[in-house]
Each structure stands twice: as C-alpha cells, then as structure tokens.
Write a structure and sequence with these properties.
This protein has 179 residues and is of the alpha/beta class. Helix content is 49%, strand content 13%. The protein contains eight helices and five strands. Strands 3-2-1-4-5 form a five-stranded parallel sheet, with helices on both faces. Strand 2, helix 4 and strand 3 form a beta-alpha-beta unit. Helix 5 crosses helix 7.
Length: 179
C-alpha cells in the first residue's frame, strides 16, 4: 500500500496534522517499540523537529541510522526521565511531549520493583513538573492495558502514572499545558 493511501486511512488525520504541523516534539522512550512507532508516525505530519530521547545509546544510534533520510527533522538525545534537570533541558522550546519512556516488561519489573517505581512513577512526575515549568503546549502519556486492572508492579506503576497525568490536568492552575 502506498503512503498516501495509508495516510488517508488514519482516523482524524486532518485534526492530528493540524496539531503536529510545524511543532517541536519530544518523544521519551523514543527508541522503544512504542516510542519508535510514534516517531515514525509523527514524521508523516510535518513536524518542525522531533527530539528522540532515551537512555540507551545503542538504540538511539540504530534509529538514527534507520531514519537517516529524515535526519533534518530529527534530534537524538541521551537522557533519563529520572533526571529532572536533563528532562527540563530536553523539553526546552518543545511544544508537545509524547511520554513513552517506561520499564514495560512485567517480569523485569517484578524482579526490580524499586527501579520500576523510579522510572515509571518518579520519571512521570519529573516529566509533568518539567512540562509545567517550560509551559509545554500538550503532554501525551502513553500507557498500557495492564494499567486497567493491575496485577503486577508494572501495571500498578503505569496506573499511577495515568493518575498523575490525569491529576495534573486538574491542578495545573492557569498553565496552558494540556495533559
């Protein structure tokens, strides 16, 4: 299927395009399975720039090579959502964030619950606080079906992330950031 036919099948294409067109976007966890799919899809909507952030140098290099033909729109950032200062700097002059960074493997999260909390919960809190500080336009949190009825550490942390983002919309005050 050619790209123009594929694009026409995307529900709400025009509305999404009007939000993304000409914007600077940050995708955290931008080299993971979900994050990299978001990056590739966003490129179809004519953003000004997409900043891809991850703490995995190898995967960052790999995606930079795979998307070399569109490198004029891409910037590659090494950083961790656990580090507020780095996140705030990565968000500087960004319009929209897609927050996909998380520890997502159920078994690894069960064996490393404190690390999962640091990344998923505290990392999301850092993202929210930085978004408000830099006056971000939109903050989109990427979650999982496992948050709907959490039976494990990963699902419970992602549910808490959803609650943090939902609450941020209520307590953002007069900030223009939409969560």
């Amino acid at each position: 299927m050619n790209m123009s036919k594929n694009i026409s099948l995307i529900l709400y294409y025009d509305e999404i395009a009007s939000i993304i067109d000409g914007k600077t976007i940050l995708v955290t966890g931008g080299t993971g399975s979900i994050g990299s799919a978001i990056v590739k899809r966003l490129l179809e909507y004519n953003p000004k720039t997409i900043r891809v952030l991850t703490n995995d140098e190898d995967s960052l290099f790999e995606i930079s090579q795979k998307l070399k033909s569109q490198s004029e729109k891409l910037r590659f950032f090494i950083g961790d959502v656990r580090e507020y200062t780095r996140i705030k700097k990565a968000m500087d002059n960004v319009d929209i964030v897609f927050h996909a960074a998380a520890l997502k493997h159920v078994e690894m999260s069960e064996f490393n619950p404190f690390e999962t909390i640091k990344t998923n919960v505290q990392g999301t809190q850092n993202m929210i606080e930085a978004a408000l500080k830099v006056k971000l336009e939109r903050f989109i949190n990427i979650s999982t079906d496992k948050a709907a009825n959490p039976l494990n550490v990963m699902g419970a942390t992602k549910l808490l992330c959803e609650k943090l983002v939902t609450s941020a919309e209520s307590w953002r005050g007069d900030s223009k950031t939409l969560f």
